[in-house]
Specification:
It contains 19 helices and 17 strands. Helix 3 runs parallel beside helix 4 and helix 8 runs parallel beside helix 10. Helix 2 links the parallel strand 1 and strand 2 (44-46). It is globular. 37% of the residues lie in helices and 16% in strands. Residues 196-328 form the Thiamine pyrophosphate enzyme central domain.
Length: 534
Amino acid sequence: MSSAPTCAQVLMRLLREYQVEKVFGIPGVHTIELYRGLPGSDLQHVTPRHEQGAAFMADGYARASGKVGVCFLITGPGLTNAATAMAQAYSDSIPMLVISAVNRREDLGMGRGRLHELPRQSDVSRGYCLWQHTLTQAEQLPEVINRAFQLLSSSRPGPVHIEIPIDLFPAPMPGAIDDYRAAPAPALPAAGITAVDTAVEWLQNAKRPVILLGGGAQACGADATALAEKLAAPVFESLAAKGIVDERHPLCGGANLSFDVVRERVENADVVLAVATELAETDRNLVRENYAFKGKLIRVDIDPGQLVCNGNPDLAICADAGETLAQLNRALPEGDSERQNAVAEELAAILKACRKEWWPGSEERFAWVQALRDALPEDGILVTDSTQLAYNTNHALPLYQARSHVTCTTGYGTLGFALPAAIGARLSTERDVVALIGDGGLMFTLGELAVAVEQKLPLPILVWNNSGYGEIRDFMDDAEVPQEGVNLRTPDFVALAKSFGAEGCLIDQPEQLGPAIAEALRRNTPTFIEITAP
């Protein structure tokens, strides 16, 4: 390089230093100089059709891979278009780095009517970001990027937003491009010895322990399984944690926390170990009433504020979930196989009883759930939107490993998530991905199908077509509210897919689903599989 590197070039260099491989964004007139830094950076740029799609893709990429999802956004509307997706990532603690432009430094706060101007753009994202920062000097960039990745890798994750004034993108940076390096990853905090000793004593003496896993335990599947076996304890997962423990394991109760029979087992446990979970209503599929813990409650979370949210613990451990579970496993003796078998039998009866509590319509959709489980590869990733069939898969479709359940039915609960999130997920891994979305939600982000076509993704997209917002329609009926605004005219999704250069088929029987998914996975283009809902 014959001249000093620019701020934009150093940004690309630092992203690669932090093992970023793909960025999702739409170029704009304010980011031309940012994009000048891309050539030669070894970063792959993916162009969505809407900035909301960019952030949803980054979200899906992060959930499926465990890496940081990265977006490039333009000033003003680029950021506000992505706001909903960023808020979903914040709600579900997904690591996302959003780099946006902002007007020139001399124009900030001046109200001069500049293109894309907001009075205080930095205020827009503060409510749904871990950290928001406006760069004021190009030389600050390495420190700011390092701080962002330290936050994203060593604390409860979420979106970080860094806005860069457009006059700083071409600004020269000191030194050579090779001088810019990533900071070393921080050591994750472990639990204190006294806390571990207390937890071990309580758990070892427990007669009816229970383990609750949340989405922050994605890397803890092996340790959680080993601990369950040592304690002969059933493991129940939040929706965000589904699949962390193989749901075929006889001690895994899956994501069934919404059912009364599970509530009774949890509430009557003498010790509950809750790991990296909010204990929120979204963990229980919108069952509002929290558990009344009658025994001792041990909570493990990297976020100290979360340790007392939705339930005061008898023992609070502020530490990394994986480190803490490993410490507990090292301290506890091997389990008793007879006790494990007895608990497994008890759990099997509980899960059978859960089906009696399923809401109306679930039984007729169960055949579709089973067909989807049969068709999904063993290590496949299921990406779901807020739609009727997805609520059944939350409970009735077992998953076998972590990062197999990418869903917006937790937390913020936006529509339109599944299509772009599935694209991001598939771009992060060689694992097969299947998306499930309703006809109403699909129309929110339909344009992102073009991205899947461009990327030649073998992506089956199941469209549960009930001609409207079926869940809300059911709620209106239950509340005796006249149906208004929930019955929609839907397009011919098969024809629509083909107009994009994708494939499509229409099915109405569960036995047709397996062959349709298998064929879709063999293609080098996405496939709409439109399901006529019963």
